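Here is the promised in-class demo. Please do not try to memorize the tokens; focus on the logic of going from shape to residues.
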């Protein structure tokens, strides 16, 4: 049986166009259309990784849905595409893994790409996040103008894809026409501070095993006698067996203690350095350590997770639906239930929304992490409520005391 690499499984055996067919894409701002991932390995920092993980964990819980807006009404569409995104976007990842990796790539590299693999009928059959080492934008030397993305991987392999087959998410989208800005200058000084402080702590621990004192002899000794006397002194008095903590020496030698006081970064300075990383990713220590309050999570959701949901909704919609399909109201949205982190008292307050049709029973049960029930996806409404000028539940009329009549 022929062995195939993951590279071949994802991209198949598609014929790649020769390199001399393309030239570098000319950018409006004059920057080179090439983006290389930062060589500083920011993800190796425990603080950076904790921030990225906190964001990716919550963003991966967003639920994609295919909806269609028709005459002001919203219809949920159970299409094959959305089922892929909700369960297993590709044969190697669950939906949670897929979105976790996608958001992690975006946070660390500021540019995240998804390759959409289409079947012969033009329908998506798989979605793959591309973990690249470098990407370069090209354009054909002749023929129809289009943007081509050339990816290079750590293995040294390259692959060329039309930009129209990619979903591209960007962060810090400012000084480049197509790329999100690099993290090189923005976070490097902070990471260097973290590295320096960590090394200081390590060195301080090591210094505890350095020279502690001097034995000063009043007469001249041979080198071997001096070493033997030193070893005997250490063995007798500088080990854990010397529980009294007192050493006795004769008038032939004096013991001079050397006090090593290594300088370390104090707790407040460490907190200040860590806060610079938190600020860079838009989080705080409570979010990273998962000890936030209801209001604190709401702020985190609105400032970090909700913008990601909007960004992904627009990017996936533009890739998966043509202008005509979008004109008929088709779109992909990402929903998040931030009420999962609300207190039970707050959750119970939303119970009143169920009998008014604002929430279905199963949506309310989901807030409590309860399993759905049969018929719970149908909205319900009290009989004593009705739209202005309308009839309750679309049938009969209503008396002054709120009773339903037909």
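The designed amino acids, position by position:
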């Amino acid at each position: 049986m022929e062995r195939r690499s993951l590279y071949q499984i994802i991209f198949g055996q598609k014929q790649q166009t020769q390199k001399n067919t393309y030239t570098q894409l000319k950018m409006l701002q004059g920057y080179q259309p090439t983006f290389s991932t930062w060589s500083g390995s920011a993800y190796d920092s425990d603080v950076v990784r904790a921030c990225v993980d906190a964001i990716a964990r919550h963003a991966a819980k967003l639920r994609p849905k295919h909806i269609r807006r028709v005459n002001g009404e919203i219809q949920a569409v159970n299409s094959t595409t959305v089922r892929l995104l909700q369960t297993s976007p590709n044969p190697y990842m669950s939906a949670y893994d897929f979105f976790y990796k996608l958001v992690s790539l975006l946070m660390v590299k500021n540019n995240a790409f998804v390759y959409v693999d289409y079947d012969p009928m033009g329908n998506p059959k798989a979605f793959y996040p591309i973990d690249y080492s470098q990407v370069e934008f090209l354009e054909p030397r002749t023929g129809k103008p289009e943007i081509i993305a050339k990816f290079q991987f750590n293995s040294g392999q390259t692959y060329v894809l039309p930009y129209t087959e990619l979903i591209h998410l960007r962060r810090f989208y400012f000084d480049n026409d197509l790329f999100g800005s690099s993290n090189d200058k923005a976070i490097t000084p902070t990471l260097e501070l973290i590295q320096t402080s960590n090394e200081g702590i390590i060195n301080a621990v090591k210094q505890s095993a350095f020279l502690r004192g001097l034995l000063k002899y009043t007469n001249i000794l041979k080198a071997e006698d001096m070493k033997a006397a030193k070893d005997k002194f250490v063995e007798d008095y500088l080990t854990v067996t010397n529980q009294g903590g007192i050493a006795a020496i004769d008038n032939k030698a004096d013991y001079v203690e050397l006090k090593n006081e290594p300088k370390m970064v104090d707790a407040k300075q460490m907190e200040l350095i860590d806060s610079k990383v938190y600020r860079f990713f838009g989080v705080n220590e409570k979010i990273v350590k998962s000890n936030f309050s209801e209001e604190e999570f709401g702020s985190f959701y609105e400032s970090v997770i909700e913008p990601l949901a909007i960004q992904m909704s627009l990017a996936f919609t533009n890739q998966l639906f043509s202008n005509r399909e979008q004109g008929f109201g088709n779109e992909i949205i990402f929903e998040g239930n931030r009420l999962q982190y609300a207190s039970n008292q707050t959750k119970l307050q939303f119970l009143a929304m169920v009998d008014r049709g604002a929430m279905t029973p199963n949506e309310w049960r989901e807030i409590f992490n309860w399993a759905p029930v049969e018929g719970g996806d149908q909205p319900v409404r009290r009989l004593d409520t009705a739209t202005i000028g309308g009839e309750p539940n679309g049938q009969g009329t209503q008396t002054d005391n709120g009773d339903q009549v037909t």
